[in-house]
Amino acid sequence: PYPMPPQVRMRIANRPGSSRHYEQANWYGMRARLPHATSYAGVTTMTVKLRTGKRLSPQSDRKISLVANRIYPGGLSRSIRDAVYCVTDSLGISRAELDTQQIDALHDAYWGPRGETFDLDFTEQQTARDVLRTIFAAGMGHLKLSGGLISAVREGVQSVPAGALSPHEMSGPLQVSFQAPAHDDFDGVDVEYLDATTWTVETVQCRMPGSLGRKVEKISADGVTSRTRAWRIGMRRLRKLLGQRLSFSCETEMDALNFEYMDRVLLTDDLPGTTVSSLIVGAEWEGDRVVLTSSEPLDWSVSAPRCLIRRHDGTVTGVLTPAQVSEFELSLPADAIDFDLLIDDPVIEPARLLFGPSTRLGYDALIEEITPSADGSCSVSALQYDPSYYADDNNTPA
Prior knowledge:
4 helices
C-alpha cells in the first residue's frame, strides 16, 4: 500500500509427485508495483522493448549495445574543441585561463573541416594534464602553455621559421647529436584504435615502400575511431623514426623566450664552411637594390651562397639569393628589407645576417623544451625538422 523495504520468507517444497530434492534455490528477480520516478534531473533515460526467442539465454536477452554521442553544452557532439572545454569547465577552470582564440582557430582550420573528432570515455581517474594531452593528440596536436594560458599547437608543415638562434644569441656552442641508422631500428608502426564500425580494437599497419617490418613499434591512438586517421598518426611516427636523426641543445640568455613549444627555428654554428652569423653594420639603398655591410667576412667560395636576415624582433626572412659586392658586402633586392632596419641603435637588438651555402644554411629544428634558469639564461632542446614527416597527413591507407 506504500513504499517500504519488504521482507520475504520462502521455503523449498518438492513438486507433487516428484522425488527430486533441492538443497538450494536461486531467485533471479523480484518485482513490485510501487510508485517510481518518471524523470531524473540531468539524466536522460530510455526504455527498450525486446522481442526474444528460445535460442537466447536468460542473460543475453537483457543486454543491448548502445552508441551514445555526448552533446556538449553549447557545442558540437564529438568535437575536440568542446571536449577540451567540457573538461576544463568541469574542473572549474575559467575560460580566461584558456587560450580560446588559438583553440577555436585550430577547430576552424583543421579539426572541423577535416572531420577530426574525439571519441573516448575516461573510466578511470586521471590528471587534467593527461586528459587534455589525449584529447589534443587525437587531432594531431600537443598541449602547451602560452602566455600563462592553457593552449594547443598542431604539429605540421611550417613554411617559414619562427626565428633563428645564432652564435650571437648563444652563450655556449651549439651541441648537435646524430643517431646513426642501425639494424635494430624500427621500420614499421602498428596503430591500435577502436573501430567505429565493429566497435572492437583494430590494428592498422604503417609501412614505407620496401619495408619488411622486422621491428615494429606499437602505439595506441586513443579517441580515434577512423582507420585513416589512425594510419596518418602512425605514418607521422614512422617517418620520424626513420628520418629524425639529429637533436640539438644550446644555452642562450633570454632570447629563447621569444619561442614556444613546437616552433620551427633555425639554429646555426660557427664551423668553417657552414653558416656565418654577423651583425648588419651598414645599409645603402641603390635604386631597387640594397647593399648590406657585414661585421664578419663572408665566404663567397661556398656552393650557391644564400642568406637570411634575422629581424630585430627575432623573426627571420625567407631564403635570399645575394650578389657579391666585396668581402664584407652583399647586394639584395630592396624589398628583402621588409622591416625598419636600424643601424647602431643602442636600445634595440641589432639585425643579424646569416650567410652560407644553400645546403648548410643552418639547421631546421623544432623546439622541444625551453628551461629558464634563475640567472636569466635558458636551456634549449630541439629536434630535427623536415616537412617530409607530414607527407601522409592527407593520404589514405591502401
